[in-house]
Fold this protein.
Amino acid sequence: MRIIAISFIISFHIYGVFSLRDNQVPVYYSKNSNSSADLYEIRKGKFLPFYTVVRFKNNECTATNGLVGTCYLRSECRTKQGVAFGSCSRGLGVCCVVTRNCGGLPTSSNNTYFRSPGYPDYYNGSSTTCTISIAKNRDSATHVRLTFTDFTLAQPHPTTGQCQIDRMNVLGSEISPPVICGENTGQHMYLRFTPDNSAMQIIILANSSTTFRRRWSILVTQHEQNESRRDL
Ligand SMILES: *[C@@H]1O[C@H](CO)[C@@H](O)[C@H](O)[C@H]1NC(C)=O
Ligand SMILES: *[C@@H]1O[C@H](CO)[C@@H](O)[C@H](O)[C@H]1NC(C)=O
Ligand SMILES: *[C@@H]1O[C@H](CO)[C@@H](O)[C@H](O)[C@H]1NC(C)=O
Ligand SMILES: *[C@@H]1O[C@H](CO)[C@@H](O)[C@H](O)[C@H]1NC(C)=O
Ligand SMILES: *[C@@H]1O[C@H](CO)[C@@H](O)[C@H](O)[C@H]1NC(C)=O
């Protein structure tokens, strides 16, 4: 028994050092376990018959704080600057919630929350813009959906209808959407990646020279042209 345990650890390390890529986990399988739908067997153990390397789909999960997350390895979640709230994929992954305020590296995480600084407190604004950058999370992603779960900026000008104080605009999408401001809670917007697949920027100006009870929480999800085609 002891010898088997030691060999297991040694072969685990051989595999771990040379073969494990992102999102692959060595798993001990007892003979009568059945594999679950979101686990993919990559390779059977070479040195010993009873463990195997699997990867799991980066499926959506419900975080223990009620937000929408994505199932990642704990280390991947850290790389994506997310926070783990509970586990998923039979405890192999963590339900990783990625939340961004202003700035930072482009996010490629499906289900990223773009929030005003200090959210859910109201945001007094700034003299500079608050921007996040969204990069494709896989080659097949064609567009992004912005779901405005909470979105209140200063109202447009009452006569011109123009967003003169606060405004949100998008750079780098195939077709530029209109500039928006005011109340948009419950609305959504689709944006297409450009053919060169470059990242797009969502830019919010919350003008601190006007005091206003403004704040936003935008859920950013990435989608494929043909959502029914689900590959890894
Ligand atoms: C195997 O699959 C069945 C049906 O999906 C499930 O009820 C059972 O709990 C599974 N067994 C194990 C060991 O995961
Ligand atoms: C925002 O502005 C209000 C009203 O001027 C002020 O009371 C509050 O302290 C400000 N908040 C921050 C975080 O600066
Ligand atoms: C913010 O508002 C002030 C006063 O309404 C205006 O002068 C200034 O140009 C605005 N800032 C930006 C970046 O639009
Ligand atoms: C992103 O998440 C949404 C919602 O779960 C899902 O429909 C979509 O297929 C995912 N897209 C990618 C590219 O992972
Ligand atoms: C989209 O998915 C459907 C159903 O799986 C398939 O029949 C169709 O060929 C797909 N279209 C493209 C453009 O991939």
